[in-house]
Design a protein that fits this description.
The chain is of the alpha+beta class and 295 residues long. Helix content is 61%, strand content 11%. A five-stranded mixed beta sheet has the order 1-2-5-3-4. Helix 1 (2-32) runs antiparallel to helix 2 (39-96).
Length: 295
C-alpha cells in the first residue's frame, strides 16, 4: 500500500514537471512575442505556473511523510522479528525441558499434600482448643458462681484462664494482708487451679499511679504490688493446698494499667490482682497454633 501511494505521487510530480515545462516554454515564447500574447493570457499562464509550483511542493512533503512512515514500519518490523526469535527460543527451551516436567509436577504434588496435611492439623487443633476453652469456661462458671461481677472478672482465651480480682475485695487501702471476706473467692479459685493440676499459675499484683511513700513496708507501689501477689500465693498454698511448684508471683507496680488513672473509677480498676492459669510451655505453644519447624 505504501509503495503504491509512493508511485502515484511520483507520477503526479512527473506530470507537474511536464506542465511546468510547457508553461515555461509558452512564457518564454510570450516574452519574445509580446505583440502576439495579450496580458490576460499572460496572467493566466503565470497563475497556472504558481499553482504547479505549489502542487509540486505539496507532493514533496507527501514524499517526506511517506519516507517517515516507511522508516517507522521498518522499526516495527524489526521489533516483531526480535520478539518472534525470543518466542522461538523459549519454545525450544520448553521442549528441551519437557522431560523434566514430570519431576517438577511430582514435587509440586508433594508440597500440596504437605500443606493439606498441615491445614487439617490446624483445623483439628482449633477444634481441640475450642473444646478446651468451652470446658474451662463452663467449669469456671460453675465454680465461681454467686460472685459480684465488679469484684471478679474471668476470661478464657486459647486455653489460658485470666481471673482478675479487685483490690477492695482482697485488701485494705495501702495494705497487702488478705481480708477474711476474700477467703470464699480464693477457695473457689483454688479449686479450679487444683482441678487443672498440670497447669502453671502466675499471680500478678497491680496498683494505680498514686504515690506510696513510707519508711516501712510497703515503701512504694513496687513493694505493694509484689507483696499483694505473694500474699495471695501464700493463701492458695497454705490454706487451699495449691502446689507451690506451680506458682509464680510478682508485682508490676503501676506500669500495667487497664485504663486511665485520671479518674477515681479508672484507678479502682487498675488496682487489681490477676491470677493467670495456663498450660505448660509445650502445650501452650500448641494452643497458640505455632507452626512446627520444618526439617
Amino acid at each position: 500500500m505504501l509503495k503504491l501511494r509512493f508511485r502515484t505521487i511520483l507520477k503526479q510530480i512527473n506530470y507537474l514537471h511536464m506542465r511546468l515545462f510547457k508553461i515555461l516554454t509558452i512564457a518564454v515564447m510570450g516574452l519574445s512575442l509580446t505583440s502576439c500574447v495579450s496580458k490576460k493570457q499572460f496572467d493566466a499562464l503565470n497563475l497556472n505556473y504558481k499553482q504547479c509550483i505549489e502542487d509540486a511542493g505539496e507532493r514533496m512533503r507527501q514524499i517526506q511523510d511517506l519516507k517517515g512512515e516507511n522508516s517507522s514500519l521498518k522499526g516495527q518490523n524489526d521489533l516483531l522479528v526480535g520478539q518472534n526469535n525470543a518466542l522461538k527460543s523459549s519454545l525450544d527451551a520448553c521442549l528441551a525441558n519437557a522431560g523434566k516436567g514430570s519431576t517438577n509436577i511430582d514435587k509440586l504434588v508433594g508440597e500440596i499434600n504437605a500443606s493439606n496435611a498441615y491445614i487439617k492439623q490446624l483445623i483439628s487443633g482449633k477444634s481441640r482448643n475450642d473444646s478446651l476453652n468451652m470446658a474451662l469456661s463452663n467449669k469456671l462458671k460453675r465454680s465461681l458462681d454467686n460472685i459480684a461481677d465488679q469484684d471478679v472478672d474471668v476470661k478464657v482465651l486459647k486455653g489460658v484462664v485470666l481471673i482478675s480480682l479487685s483490690d477492695k475485695m482482697l485488701y485494705q487501702v495501702g495494705k497487702y494482708e488478705i481480708q477474711p471476706a476474700a477467703a470464699d473467692v480464693l477457695a473457689k479459685v483454688a479449686k479450679v487451679i487444683n482441678d487443672y493440676d498440670t497447669y502453671s499459675v502466675l499471680i500478678e499484683g497491680n496498683t494505680d499511679n498514686t504515690p506510696l511513700n513510707s519508711a516501712n513496708a510497703p515503701r512504694d507501689n513496687w513493694d505493694l504490688s509484689a507483696l499483694r501477689a505473694t500474699a495471695v500465693a501464700k493463701v492458695l498454698q497454705n490454706q487451699f493446698g495449691v502446689n507451690p511448684n506451680r506458682i509464680t508471683a510478682g508485682g508490676r507496680s503501676e506500669y500495667n494499667p487497664k485504663t486511665t488513672n485520671a479518674s477515681v473509677s479508672g484507678r479502682g480498676e487498675n488496682r487489681r490482682t490477676e491470677i493467670i492459669i495456663m498450660p505448660k510451655l509445650d502445650e501452650f505453644m500448641k494452643l497458640m497454633d505455632i507452626a512446627p519447624v520444618k526439617k
